[in-house]
């Protein structure tokens, strides 16, 4: 779950940088500052993905990216794609963690006695 979430956030970090390049010529500096704050919060959220607060912050940053797509309209389609990837990271990550926990609960088959196999 953490790997997928960090991949989505790190790609969004790069996309936000490109969106700021598009916005710098047409908007004032407050838009650039907002974009920079969102970018650095993404890096912070990647570090927090071990905890639930990281996932909450990542979800809030998805909304912040949606707000930035009003400034740079060409970013709206990319934002929709990455919101889908974020939801997929949560859903697939939970399924993967459940499968891993089930495998760990079974134990290593090589450690069993021949009569248990």
Topology, please?
Elements: H1 2-23, H2 29-48, H3 52-68, H4 76-106
Helix pairs in contact: 1-2, 1-3, 1-4, 2-3, 3-4
Summarize the main sheet.
Answer: none
Task: Indicate the overall shape.
Answer: elongated
Uncertain spans? none
- Nearest-integer average pLDDT: 87
Structural class: mainly alpha
Number of domains as seen in the coordinates: 1
* Count of extended strands: 0
Order of helices and strands: HHHH
Taken as a percent bin, the fraction of beta residues is under 5%
Helix share of residues? over 70%
* Number of helices, counting only DSSP H or I runs of 4 residues or more: 4
Report the end-to-end length measured between terminal Cα atoms.
32 Å
Structural Rg = 19 Å
Can you characterise this structure?
With 117 residues, this protein is mainly α. It has one domain (2-106). Helix content is 77%, strand content 0%. It has 4 helices and no strands. Helix 1 (2-23) packs parallel to helix 3 and helix 2 (29-48) packs antiparallel against helix 3 (52-68). The model has no long low-confidence stretch (mean pLDDT 87).
